[in-house]
Structures
1.
Amino acid sequence: MSIDQATVRKIASLARIAISDAEAAAMEGELNGILGWVEQLGEVDVTGVEPMTAVIPNTLRLRDDVVDADPLTGGGRRDDVLANAPAAMHGFFGVPKVIE
Amino acid sequence: MTDLTNLTVAQIRDGHRAGDFSAVEVAEAFNANVAGAKLLNAFIVETPEHALAAAKAADADRAAGTLKPLSGVPIGMKDLFATNGVQTTAASHMLEGFVPRYESTVSAKLWDAGCGMLGKLNLDQFAMGSSNETSYFGNVISPWKRNDGGNAALAPGGSSGGSSTAIAARLCPAATGTDTGGSIRQPAAFTGISGIKPTYGRCSRWGIVAFASSLDQAGPMARDVRDCAIMLENMAGFDPKDATSLDMAVPNWEAALSSDLKGKTVGIPKEYRLEGIDPDIDAMWDAGIAMLKDAGADVVEISLPHTKYALPAYYIIAPAEASSNLARYDGVRYGLRDLPDGAGLQDMYAATRADGFGPEVKRRIMIGTYVLSAGFYDAYYTQAQKVRTLIARDFEQAFGVCDVILAPTAPSAAFGLGEKMADPLAMYLNDVFAVPASLAGLPAMSVPAALNREGLPLGLQIIGKAFDEQGVLNAGLAIEERAGFNARAEKWW
C-alpha cells in the first residue's frame, strides 16, 4: 500500500515533528520507496512462528526493594537531573503554559 | 626512537609495563596526531587533558607497582557514550551542548582499567547511517584514497566512522564502537582495521544514547584481533543497570587466543553469494576460505534461507524502536528547545524535533511511527518480529553443523562521499551481510583481508554462536596471520 501526503503529515504529527509542504512532498516518495521495499516480508510464510521478544534468552531481574539501591540512579540528585534542562526553574522543568 | 603511535594496544601496555617509555610520552604523541588531523574531522571534541591526566596516573601507578590492565593506553570514545563532564551529542544538533552528569558503564570500565580519553569521536547522527554523512558536525573523511590518482574523498563507513578513521590514521590505537546493524563491522572493513560486536548483552547499554535497544551493542575497534580481545575484556561484564545485560563471567579472551582451528568447522552461507557483486569481494571470500582450511578447519556449505528478508525486517524493527526511544527528545529535560513566539507545548515539541533531528533520523522516526500505528502494527511490526525469529532459527540450525560462519563484511569497498546519499535504499544495502547477525544477537567481527583493485581495504566477517566470542576471535586471528594485511593509508592530511 502506498501513502499520500496527507498520511505523511499525519505521521509527522504523531511523531511530533513539524514539516513543511515541500518536506512532506519529498518524504512521500522516500517513505513509499522504503515501505514498498519492506513489503516483501509479506511473502514469508510465518504460520505458527512466534514473534521474537528477546534475542538472547534472559530473565528480568528484580532489584532489592530499598531506597537508592544504586547511588547513581537513586534519588537525591535533583540538581544533576536539572543541569541540562533548557529552562529549569525553582527546582522544576519549565514548560510553556498548558492551561489557559 | 619508534613512533609510539604505530604501536598496538598490547605493545603500548607491555612496553609501558616494561619501562620502555612513559605513558605521558604515549599520550603526547597521540594528542599531537589528533591535533594535526583536523581535515579528517574524526573528533567532535578533543580531550588531550583527559588523556594526559590518565597517563600521569599510569606512570605514578607504575612507580608504585599498582598497574592496571590498560595503564598507559589512550583511546577514542565514540560520541554515543555518555561521559561525565564532557559533551555527548550522538552527532546531533538535538544534543549539542549536552554535558552528562554521569558516566556510561562501558566508558567507566575503561577508565577504571587505566585508559585515557583522547576525545569524543564523530559518528552518524544517533548512529543512523553507513557512511558518517548524517552527522550534524560534518562528514568524517577516510584516510584512504583510491589508487587511480584521483583525489575523491571516501566514506569511512558508519555509523562508527570517527572510530574507524581515527584508528586507521593512527590518531588512537583503539576506540569504542557500537553496532546496531553493522556499525562496528562495516566501518572497520572500509578502513582496514578490526572490530568485534559481541553477543547481545555482553556490554552494558547503560549510558549509551539509545537507537534500537533490542539490537544496540557496544564493542571495540582496533588494529588487530588481539587488541580487540583486550579491549572487549575491559568493556564487557554484567551491569544491573541494564535489564538485558548478560549475568555471565567475562572470559579471558586474550589469554585463550589460538589460531589453530583443527577440529573446527567453518560454514559458508550460500545465500551470501550475491549475483552481480564486485568480483574482488568474492575473490577475497574464497581466499579467506583457503586461509581457514590452512589453519586446520573443515569447511562446509550451509544455508541461511531467510537471509534476503533480514534487511527489510531490520528496517522495520530498528526504526520502530528508534521512534519510541527518540520520543524522549522533547525540549523539556535536556538538549535543544525551540520555542517559537506564542507557541504552546505541542508546538514546542514539533518545532524542537524539526530543528534538532537531521533528515535520516526524521525518516527513520517517521517509518517507525507508521509501522507502529494503529491498523499497521501487525502487518509490519509483528510480521518483522516473526521473520526475525526465522532468521535466528536459520543460524541455530547452521550452528548444528558448523562452529563459525565466514562471509564478507560488506558488499563493496568504501564508496565516495555523496555517492549514495540521494538514495536511502542504496545506502541501506551496505549492511546486507552485517544485519542478519545483529538480528540474531550473535557475536561477529570484521578483520582486514585484502586490498581491492582500487587499492582499498576489504574485510572478512566471522559470525559465531551466542557467547562464543572466543571462536570468532580465533578464526579472525587465523585470517589475520595468513592475510598479512599491513597496508595503511598514506598520510595526506
2.
Amino acid sequence: MKFCFITFRSVTFAQSGQRSLKRAGIDTVLRRTPKGLEQRGCGYCLQLRESAALQAVDQLRRSQIEFGKLYRWQQDGSGEEWPV
Amino acid sequence: MIYLDNGATSFPKPEPVRRAMASAMVSCGNPGRGGYPAAMEAVQRVYGCRETAAELFDCRPEQVVLTSSCTHGLNMAIRTLINPGDRVVISGFEHNAVTRPLHGLGAQVTVAGRRLFDPEDTLQQWEKALRQGVDAAVFTHVSNVFGYILPVAEMAALCREHGVPFIVDAAQSAGSMPVSLGEWGADFIAMPGHKGLLGPMGTGLLLCGRLPKPFMSGGTGSESQNQDMPDFLPDRGEPGTPNVAGIAGLAAGIGTVRRLGLSRIALREHREAARCAEDLKKLGFTVFSGPNQGGTVSFLPYMDCEEAARILAEHGIAVRAGLHCAPLAHESAGTLETGTVRVSFGPDANSDQTRAFLQAARQLL
C-alpha cells in the first residue's frame, strides 16, 4: 500500500485535522514529521493512504484547518512533495 | 466537614479526576515532543482537554490555551490588550487578579457599575464609561465575594458596539453557568481549572479570540528553528512542558461537569444560596443578597469575620472570611473595613449542607 504525509505547524493542528478527517471517514496516523520534510524545526504530520490524499486535502480546506504540505512517502523515510 | 468554600476551589475532587491524574502519571511522556507511545498518549490527553473545553465554551480546540491558573490567563490577556497608560474600564467587582496587573502596567482605570445586584445600573454605568472613550475593558462574570451575576452578554455587546476589545474573568462562572467565546465575541476569557470545572489546582484555561502576546518564551515542540514564539494558537501561549497530569484531571473534571449538566449545577447552587441568604436574614445577620445571584452569599457576623469563620470551622463548616482578594468589590459594597464571611456552594449543594451551616451559624449570635 502506498502512503502519503500531510504536515502541520503544530501537533494541535494535526490533531484537529485528524478529527476532521475521521469524521469524513478517512483514517490517519498521527506521527512526527520526518526531519527532512520539516522546514522550521519540529512538527507532526498525518500519515494516510495515498488514494485518500486529495479527498483529505479537500476536507481540511473545507474545515479551515491549516496544514503545510502533502508528500508521497518513500521507502527510505523521505518524501516527495505532491503539489496540491 | 461541610465544605462551603467552592469560590476558592472545588473540594474534594471527583473520583474520575483523581483516576485520570493517577493514570497520566504512569502512562504519559512529554506531549508534543516525541513520537513514541507514551508521548503520543500525552498528546491525546492534552488534546482531549482542549476538545472537551472547546465544546463547553463554544470555540475551537486551538483557541484553548492551557494555563496554570485563571490569574496566569488574565495576566496574559491583560498584557496583550493593554499598554502602560491605556484607559481601561472595569466593573466594581473585580478581583486582584485583574486590578493588580492593571496597576502594575500603570493603566488609567475607570470603575463602572458598583451597585450590587443591579444589572440595569451596571449597564448604564458601563455604557457611560465606554462612551467617554477607553482602550480596553475587563469584567468579571460573577463576583467572587457576593455572587452577583453581572449582565455579561449585554456588557460584551456594548463593548463590541463601541469597538472596545475586552476580557472576561469567568473564575466563578465556568462550570456552573454558560460561558461562550463565540457568542460573546470576547478577545479573551480566562478561567481556573480547579473551581467550577472540578479539576486540580495548578490548571486553568485562556480562551483566545485573538493571538496573545507571549507571557513567557521557550520551547513549544513546534518550529524549533524559529527564535520568535510561534504566531499561532495554542503554541504561542504555551511555552515549556505542560502539566499533563493536571490537564488530564481537568479534562475529567470538565467531563464530570458536562455529565452533571450546567443547568442542574446552577439550579442546585443558586437554590441553596438563596435559601441560606433568607435564613441568615431571619437570624438577624446583615446579608448581601438579591436577584441575579449565583451560588455565593456574603454576610456580616456580629463579630470579626475571621473569628466567625474560626468558630464555624470548629463546628465543621469550611467558609472563607476577609476580603477574598477583592478589595474593590468590598469597597463597592461598603465592607472594606469589616470584610465578610463568604458561603459558596458547589455542584453537590443540598439542603442538608445549608441546614448544617445555619445550625452552626447560630453560634455566632
